[in-house]
Design a protein that fits this description.
Length: 154
């Protein structure tokens, strides 16, 4: 499982060109799920995301977590994180999990984040056509991969 995380001053997702969901200061998390991922991957990455110390403290050092700053989180499913463009010019998405595997893991990731104190979570919609507006702060962008996935040999 992969999570591409961006620290933002604000962000929004428009789902199917109609419903707009917004956050202020916090994180945008693009989540990609592969075939071997399990619920434990979602739990690991949600905990890592909630505790990631990438917000500035009073000395300007990245030392505070989402919880510490009372930030929000916008979670968006992103199967293209498993796109492979090594051959040719058209990416292959064969490594991305199909919805029957990915949806429960994606939803569990969101549930775990929502269970954390002081974190407001907004989401995109799995499989929907979405437009994402991001004001990346820093810019700070990190790619996290689940520990469970690496144990599976990926």
């Amino acid at each position: 499982m992969k999570a591409l995380i961006q620290r933002v001053t604000s962000a929004a997702v428009t789902v199917e060109r109609s419903e707009r969901r917004t956050i202020e200061k916090g994180l945008v998390v693009f989540v990609g799920i592969t075939h071997k991922d399990v619920i434990a991957d979602a739990e690991y990455l949600a905990d890592k995301t909630a505790g990631l110390r990438i917000f500035r403290d009073e000395f300007g050092k990245m030392n505070l977590s989402l919880r510490d700053v009372g930030g929000s989180c916008l979670v968006v499913s992103q199967f293209t994180l498993y796109g492979d463009a090594k051959k040719g010019r058209r990416p292959s998405f064969i490594s991305a999990a199909p919805p029957e595997i990915a949806v429960p893991i994606y939803e569990h990731f969101i549930e775990v984040l929502r269970s954390r104190e002081k974190i407001f979570v907004e989401t995109g919609e799995f499989g929907a056509d979405m437009l994402v507006d991001i004001s990346n702060d820093g810019p700070v962008t990190l790619m996290l991969e689940s520990e469970c996935m690496s144990k599976n040999g990926n």
